[in-house]
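Job type: complex structure
Entries:
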Amino acid sequence: MKVLLVYAHPEPRSLNGSLRTVAVRELEASGHEVQVSDLYADGWKSQVDRADFPSLSPDERLVPAAASGTDFVAGTLTADVMSEIAKLHWADALILQFPMWWFAMPAILKGWVDRVFAYGFAYGVGEHSDRRWGDRYGEGTLAGKRAMLIVTAGGWEEHYAERGINGPIDDLLFPINHGILYYPGYEVLPPYVVYRVDRFDESGFEPVAEGLRERMRTLFTCAPIPYRRQNGGDYLIPSMQLRPGLGRPDATGYALHLDGDGAAREG
Ligand code: FAD
C-alpha cells in the first residue's frame, strides 16, 4: 500500500524527527511505499493569498473558496499545491505528524490544509440542495482511504483525560479528525499521542517507538473512529442536526457524532 506522511517540525534532530524515522522504517519494512512531505524542509508557503490563484485577474476581488474552485477545475492551482493533491490521490493512507502547539497543529501544517484541500477536491463536492448536503463526513474525494495523526504533547496524559484541565484529547483533536480528515472522506484512525515529552529520555523513547511501530503495522487493519456518516440517515437535511432520539438525551458536543452514542471513544 502507499502512505503519505506530512511532517511539520522545524528540526530533523527533534523527538518528532526520531519518531518520523521510526514510522517510515516500519512502514517500509511492512512492504509499504512511503512519501514524506517535510513542510519546513520544503519551505512550504502557509498563507492563502492571491498568488495561489493564477486565474484571478489583478483587479478581481479575491473570494478564496471560489478562486480555489476555479483553479482546481481548470488544473491551474500552483505547482506546490498540485503536487500535494497528486500525492493525496496516490496514497492509500495519510499520516499527519506534528507537535501540539497551543492545542492545535503548527501554523505551517494548517496552511498545508488550507491550500491543498481545495474547493471541488476536499470540499464543495457532490450535490448541494435541500435534499443533499454534498459528499462529506464519510463520503467525498478521499473516501476509501485512511488517515491518522501522530502528535507529541508536553502535557501529561491525565491533563488530557475526561476531567483534565486541558480538555479531553479526543475533543481537542476533533476539529482535525472530524473537520479536516473525515470531512473529505477519510476513515480516521485513533491518533497516536505521545504525552509529557519535554522531559523525555532514552528509557522513555523505546516504549513509545515500539507503540508507534505497532500502529504502523496495523495501519490498514485497525478499526477507525466510528463517526456517524452525514448521508447515512442520522442527520436531518438541511439543518444537519442529529435526528431526535439518536445519542444520549443528556449528551452534547462532539461525542454525539460517534456512532454508538459515544460508547466507543477513540483511545
Ligand atoms: P524535542 O524538544 O525535540 O524533544 C523532547 C525531549 O525528547 C527532549 O528531552 C529530547 O532530548 C528528547 N528526545 C528527542 N529525541 C529523542 C530520541 N531519539 N530518544 C530519546 N529522547 C529523545 N504542549 C502541550 O501539551 N499543549 C500545548 O498546547 C502546547 N503548546 C506549545 C506551543 C509552543 C509554541 C511550543 C514550542 C510548545 C508547546 N507545547 C505544548 C509543548 C510541545 O508539544 C512539545 O514541546 C513538543 O511536542 C515536543 O516535541 P519535539 O519533537 O519538539 O521534542
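Summary: The pocket of flavin-adenine dinucleotide is lined by residues 9, 14-16, 18, 99-103, 152-155, 197-198, 200-202, 205 (CB under 6 Å). The longest helix spans residues 202-217.
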